[in-house]
Amino acid sequence: MIIHTFYSFVFLILYVFQADSAREIVKKADDKMRGNTLKAEIVVKTIRPTWTREMHCKLWLKGNDLAMILVQEPIRDKGISFLKKKKEVWNWLPTLERNIKLPPSMMSQSWMGTDFTNDDLVRESSIVEDYNHKVIGDTLIRERNCYIIQMIPKAEAAVIWSKVILCIDKKDFLELHSRFYDEEGELINTMNSYDIKLMHDRIIPTRFEMIPSDKKGQKTEMIYEKVEYNIPIAEDFFSVAQMKTLK
Fold first, then answer.
1. Of 29, 105, 112, 213, which is least packed with CB atoms within 10 Å of its CB?
2. Contact 245, 139 (CB under 8 A)
3. pLDDT at res. 119
4. Sign of torsion, CA 203 209 68 174?
């Protein structure tokens, strides 16, 4: 009985340690990509079998609760913006002079006709706080040794995926490969990260490729052209009023 209790205790300690370690790995990768604040200029290329569309955007992040995105090109979409404050998301449409609050049900919908979801762009859900994490193996991606981490949503979390698999580089904590599964356990999207560069004060991937599993010849690329980390951004910048005046 004493031996059984001892082994049960050791197993529990190892399980908790592994869960904490996996969560810390994901947190380090997330913190590295986001910083305390982030200001970026990005290009989003939507690639289809018969056409390609390109958008130029600005992105501002502060912590995990505040995000702003402004579309600058093409001209027909210029001025469209998105705001996230904690768990609330708004969309400003300048041609209609209308601000729309997005319901949680729209987080799984396509962002601006791309293969990224609204949740991918503004991260309403937190990959650190809303999931339970577990290291399930190791792999090699483009000559980088990586952890394979399984993320299962917590019971109370309002997230759009039933499971996410991340492959995170062991040396620099770069998220190099991700797979997203629906409630039936079907693979929906795969994301790969490329073009690792020194951007501002850190090494990060600068090109992200989202590929839907059931749409041949279709993908979306997001390219970070300019990034600034940990610059002062006032909290009141992230406001509904500010969405209408962004440039």
1. 105
2. no
3. 82
4. negative
Pull the structure tokens for residue 213: 């599993």
Query: What are 132's strand-pairing partners?
Result: 152
Q: Minimal CA–CA distance to 80: which of 48, 36, 34, 114?
A: 114
Q: Which amino acid is at 203?
A: I
Neighbours of 186 (CB within 10 A): 10
162, amino acid identity: S
- CB-based contacts of 166: which residues, under 8 Å, 6+ apart? 26, 29, 127, 147, 148, 149, 151, 175, 177, 178
Q: Quick one: pLDDT band at residue 20, thresholds 50, 70, 90?
A: low
**Interacting residues of 183 by C-beta distance below 8 A, sequence separation 6+:** 162
Q: For residue 168, count other CB atoms closer than 10 A to its CB.
A: 25
pTM of the predicted structure, to 2 decimals:
0.86
Residue 11: pLDDT band (50, 70, 90) is: very low
Residues 6+ apart with CB under 8 A from 8: none
235: tokens are 């909290």
Its CATH architecture, for the domain 2-243, is Clam (2.50)
User: Is residue 12 pLDDT above 50, yes or no?
Assistant: no
